[in-house]
């Protein structure tokens, strides 16, 4: 055995000369080998049994101790789980795994010191076979032995058994080696006053590491088993002595590449790819990005990421501008979007379900659009329909600043409109047939002008001038005097006939009191004045209802018209400051539901019935009846005295069309149908007394 283990004196002298002080380790090794009597790998390098070196200490001051070696006793088992390969090539890294099992009753492994592990040291020793035997005590010395990195671990306990496993990578140069797996641990001595007993275990294997003797073409690696060059397959490239998978961001479409190709347009988020994945629809990769993730694919100009990055982009919504990338859409000029809707394009999160909905403004000149979601000067709120503080609106088309004399401007504007209304009502309550027909034409034209058709900008002034005949309390908004909302407008408009009646009553009462008590004119008795007041008041209020009839219709119908906005809430389409189905709006709906049958339908129906009955029973030309109601029937031929109700029906129908339908072309088409039908009816009946008026 000694001849096999130590070769010859000449070899020993040669090795001592090369290793210098390493000779001390060799002498110690010889002493321990002698005591091992050729056990296990010390005699047969491929033997599968373990060798144990036991070191005991005579006292706490003994730092050397006495070491003996032998085949490991029962209760200690070490084995290769993944041994070094039978065929090894120089400079190639191989994974190696070994494990140790303990009988903890016979070998109660301990942690020898604070923060120590049960196994404080484990590694592989690879000794050049020609230099002699290999033991755990041979130092890491060039030309003699190489060590892998030292490992440590605690045991896994299962009852009376303990186990531990180690894995490391082994790479060697060309040579014949004896490779041992070394494990060190401590057990307590029988005498507690003595230091712990140290055990070193090792199991061995003999391996011949062959050189890289064959030069392969780029993109190929040498296979020692077949002694051939293997071409690296698609998805891999040659990296040193191995074929390595392409990293993320690169690909290898064909075999035999020495370097993978970076993705230029798409991406690869997995290793070993043979092609790049195309970016989702309507996206492109950032030019400077590495192409390792779909998150690098951003929206093209004209699209936006509704569902988040990496999930494809959608075409830009109608009425919006989409810069692309991670930018959110914003409204074009003439469209409105809710700037309060926050949006995270990276994750596709938004506080508003319709953040990408953009509504065309009516008129389009109200909304400036742009990245700031701007309204034109003076406009604010939903659909830019509200006035900013310090501004007021004339005719729904002209937005003016109040200025320093805002209160004066507001009062003068309102008084001017009221004066015009009184003049118009005076004409309507009299027998000015041509003027009355012209007023009806102007009112219908005013309603048609609100349709969202492509009206020429020069018509704004004309439509505004015509709009004063609509008796709309919003014609001049009193914003310079204080707050004015859609709710205020609704209630003032519907109570305007009552307000007018109260004004007439105050006016006539003041005249009577002045004549009776100031001028001392006692010719007019209270009873006579009461009859005159009743006749005049009914005449004035009834004619007032007729001239403002279509505006009353609009206000009532509009209370039922709601529009869902991007934040998911609904607001009145024609008063976007009023949220639908909230207390204010519910009150408006209830009042409209009562107002429509009682006033809008009931009044013209009552008027037609009363005139027809008076005509039938011969009281139509009664002086009192004529004074009260002649404005409604005197211009019509017998048999058609009720025709005023037909004209009222025309305004009712067009008002309903303008509110019930959103599409401007449909509004225009239905209005034409109504007007043509009534025109044919009128042509057939020719209801006016005057042929010229017909």
Description:
With 694 residues, this protein is α+β, with helices and mostly antiparallel strands. The strands form 14 sheets. Strands 1, 2, 4, 6, 7, 8, 11 and 12 form an eight-stranded mixed beta sheet that branches. The protein has 13 helices and 37 strands. α9 runs antiparallel to α10 and α10 (583-617) packs antiparallel against α12 (643-660). Helix content is 33%, strand content 23%.
Give a concise summary.
The chain has 694 residues and is of the alpha+beta class. 33% of the residues lie in helices and 23% in strands.
Helix count? 13
Main sheet properties: 8 strands, mixed
| Through-space gap between termini | 140 Å
Mean pLDDT: 82
Give helix % range.
Answer: 25-40%
Shape designation: rod-shaped
Q: Structural class, from helix and strand content? A: alpha+beta
Beta-strand share of residues:
15-25%
Please compute the radius of gyration using only Cα atoms. Answer: 52 Å
Extract low-pLDDT stretches.
Answer: 1-38
The count of DSSP E runs of length 2 or more, i.e. the number of strands, is 37
Oligomer kind: single chain
């Amino acid at each position: 055995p000694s001849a096999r283990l130590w070769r010859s004196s000449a070899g020993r002298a040669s090795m001592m000369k090369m290793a210098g002080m390493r000779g001390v380790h060799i002498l110690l090794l010889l002493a321990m080998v002698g005591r091992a009597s050729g056990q296990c790998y010390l005699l047969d390098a491929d033997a599968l049994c373990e060798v144990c070196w036991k070191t005991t200490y005579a006292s706490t001051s003994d730092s050397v101790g006495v070491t003996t070696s032998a085949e490991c006793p029962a209760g200690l088992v070490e084995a290769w789980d993944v041994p070094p390969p039978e065929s090894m090539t120089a400079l190639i890294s191989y994974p190696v795994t070994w494990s140790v099992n303990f009988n903890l009753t016979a070998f109660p492994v301990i942690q020898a010191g604070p923060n120590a592990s049960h196994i404080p040291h484990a590694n592989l020793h690879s000794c050049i076979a020609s230099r002699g035997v290999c033991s755990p005590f041979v130092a890491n010395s060039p030309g003699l032995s190489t060590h892998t990195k030292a490992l440590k671990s605690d045991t896994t306990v299962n009852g009376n058994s303990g186990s531990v496993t180690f894995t490391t990578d082994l790479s060697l140069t060309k040579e014949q080696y004896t490779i041992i797996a070394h494990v060190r641990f401590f057990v307590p001595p029988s005498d507690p006053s003595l230091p712990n007993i140290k055990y070193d275990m090792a199991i061995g294997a003999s391996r011949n590491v062959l050189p890289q003797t064959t030069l392969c073409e780029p993109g190929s690696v040498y296979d020692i088993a077949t002694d051939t060059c293997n071409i690296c397959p698609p998805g891999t490239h040659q990296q040193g002595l191995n074929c390595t998978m392409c990293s993320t961001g690169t690909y290898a479409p064909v075999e035999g590449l020495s370097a993978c190709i970076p993705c230029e347009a798409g991406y690869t988020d997995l290793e070993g790819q043979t092609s790049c994945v195309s970016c989702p629809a309507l996206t492109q990769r950032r030019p400077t990005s590495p192409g390792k993730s779909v998150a690098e694919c951003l929206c093209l100009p004209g699209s936006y990421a509704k569902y988040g990055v990496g999930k494809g982009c959608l075409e830009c919504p109608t009425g919006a501008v989409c810069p692309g990338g991670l930018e959110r859409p914003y409204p074009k000029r003439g469209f409105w979007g809710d700037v309060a809707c926050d949006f995270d394009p990276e994750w596709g999160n938004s506080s508003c379900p319709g953040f990408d909905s953009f509504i065309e403004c009516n008129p389009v000149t109200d909304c400036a659009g742009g990245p700031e979601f701007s309204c034109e000067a003076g406009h604010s709120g939903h659909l830019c329909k509200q006035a900013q503080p310090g501004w007021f609106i004339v005719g729904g088309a002209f937005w003016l600043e109040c200025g320093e004399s805002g209160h004066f401007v507001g009062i003068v504007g309102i008084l001017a409109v009221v004066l015009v209304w009184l003049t118009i009502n005076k004409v309507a309550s009299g027998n000015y047939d041509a003027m009355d027909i012209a007023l009806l034409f102007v009112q219908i034209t005013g309603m048609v002008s609100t349709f969202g058709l492509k009206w020429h900008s020069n018509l704004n002034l004309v439509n505004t001038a015509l709009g004063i005949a609509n008796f709309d309390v919003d014609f001049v908004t009193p914003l310079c005097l204080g707050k004015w909302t859609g709710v205020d407008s609704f209630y003032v408009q519907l109570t305007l006939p009552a307000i007018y009646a109260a004004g007439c009553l105050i006016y006539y009462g003041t005249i009577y009191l002045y004549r009776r008590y100031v001028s001392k004119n006692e010719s007019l008795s209270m009873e006579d004045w009461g009859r005159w007041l009743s006749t005049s008041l009914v005449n004035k209020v009834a004619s007032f209802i007729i001239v403002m009839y279509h505006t009353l219709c609009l206000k009532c119908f509009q209370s039922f018209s709601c529009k869902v906005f991007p934040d998911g809430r609904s607001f009145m389409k024609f008063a976007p400051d009023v949220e639908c189905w909230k207390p204010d709006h519910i009150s408006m709906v209830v009042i409209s539901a009562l107002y429509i049958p009682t006033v809008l339908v009931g009044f013209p129906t009552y008027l037609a019935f009363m005139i027809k009955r008076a005509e039938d029973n011969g009281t139509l030309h009664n002086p009192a009846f004529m004074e009260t109601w002649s404005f409604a029937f005197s211009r019509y031929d017998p048999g058609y005295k009720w025709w005023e109700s037909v004209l009222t029906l025309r305004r009712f129908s067009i008002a309903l069309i303008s509110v019930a339908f959103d599409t401007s072309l449909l509004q225009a088409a239905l209005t034409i149908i109504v007007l043509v039908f009534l025109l044919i009816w009128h042509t057939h009946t020719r209801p006016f007394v005057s042929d010229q008026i017909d």
